[in-house]
Design goal:
By secondary structure, the chain is α/β, with parallel strands linked by helices. 32% of the residues lie in helices and 20% in strands. It contains ten helices and 17 strands. The chain has a seven-stranded parallel beta sheet, sandwiched between helices. It is globular and about 55 Å long. The chain starts with a strand and ends in a 13-residue tail after the last helix. The mean pLDDT is 92.
Length: 352
């Protein structure tokens, strides 16, 4: 199968491209090489694949590239919290306009198979239950509570403490950041395309991905890269809130494998699945484990929270296992120990 991998020079996309090639597919990589995610020049990993430098929002270019392509793995996106609300046009242009252009070109070329890189951020807060009211949706956390160190959202009906649970794919979707809103818009665009074209879409909702080739030291970096960069400077990793916020950290090689499995399992229309480890840990756990692996100073808990942060998002891996046969293979302890020395991407304008 010939596969176009958009964003195939990036942290996750490059791993997807490598894994697809290893599975015997012919890979064509398209990447805009956004400076926030890449250092100077074309990443060395792309040299093993057919590569085109360009934007997924360039309709003429995308249409030409899709000639002879059987399926698309759409990884291209501007990621992370960003700087502030002024990032919104860039997020919408890269993530949503780019996706719309790609889908239109796929329709024109008669291509019906898409694997979409989605994200856990479409959920907002994860799943919660109240001892009195059962399953409830947690309201956005208030600034006054965060300032007072009250980080866990209370029951919106009675104010009782909530118990976090596993978030399933049928949970209500409630994006809390510009990035999250654009990822949900990508899902809606892809779902509409599937209905209109009788296409097949797997929306892979990645949870907290870490591993080799992460970009370092940018406003768009993941928390694992930020912690490691601090430790390499001899500084304690800075942990917001109380460090007890729960996440599912999934290794990038597992994410790449999920993409290969999705390409081999055509979906009847649009289906979304969690791509996660099924092994939840706190952000504090990650900081402690990485500090120990790097023989660095213990994490520094500083309180506070960013406006778009949610408290707990812990994934249910059952549907991906049932529909795709996907089960993460890299345990947290092994992945974090390896991450202490994994190669990372240099910051914009920097060198590895």
């Amino acid at each position: 199968m010939r596969v176009l991998v958009t964003g195939g020079a990036g942290f996750i996309g490059s791993q997807v491209a490598d894994r697809l090639a290893g599975a015997g597919h012919s890979v064509l990589v398209l990447d805009a090489l956004l400076p926030a995610a890449h250092g100077d020049g074309r990443p060395v990993e792309t040299e093993r694949h057919e590569f085109v430098h360009g934007s997924v929002a360039d309709a003429d270019l995308v249409s030409r590239l899709l000639s002879g392509v059987d399926a698309v793995c759409h990884q291209a996106a501007m990621v992370g919290h960003g700087l502030d609300a002024s990032d919104a046009p860039a997020y919408a242009a890269n993530n949503d306009l780019g996706t719309a252009v790609l889908l239109a070109a796929m329709h024109s070329r008669g291509i019906r198979e898409l694997v979409l890189a989605s994200s856990m951020v479409v959920y907002g807060e994860g799943a919660y239950s109240c001892p009195v009211h059962g399953a409830v949706r947690a309201a956005p956390r208030r600034a006054c509570d965060l300032d007072a160190g009250r980080y866990d959202p209370p029951c919106p009906w009675c104010g009782a403490p909530l118990q976090p649970g596993l978030v399933r794919e049928d949970a209500p979707l409630d994006p809390r950041s510009t990035y999250a809103a654009t990822k949900l818009a990508q899902e809606h665009l892809a779902a509409a395309w599937a209905r209109q074209t009788d296409g097949s879409v797997w929306a892979l909702r990645y949870h907290n991905v870490y591993g080799p080739r992460m970009p370092r030291d940018t406003p768009y970096s993941g928390v694992a890269a930020l912690f490691r960069s601090a430790l390499e400077r001899g500084e304690a990793p800075t942990v917001l809130e109380d460090g007890a916020q729960r996440r599912d950290f999934v290794h990038v090689t597992d994410v790449a494998e999920a993409n290969v499995l999705a390409l081999g399992a055509p979906s009847p229309g649009f289906r979304a699945v969690n791509v996660c480890s099924g092994e939840p840990h706190t952000v504090g756990d990650l900081a402690v484990a990485l500090a120990a692996a790097m023989d660095g100073p213990a994490p520094r808990i500083v309180g506070g929270a960013r406006a778009a942060d949610v408290r707990h998002v812990v994934a249910d891996p059952a549907l991906a296992a049932e529909l795709l046969g996907f089960r993460a293979a890299v345990p947290f302890a092994d992945g974090v120990a390896a991450f202490a020395t994994d190669p990372l991407r240099a910051p914009a304008g920097g060198t590895p």
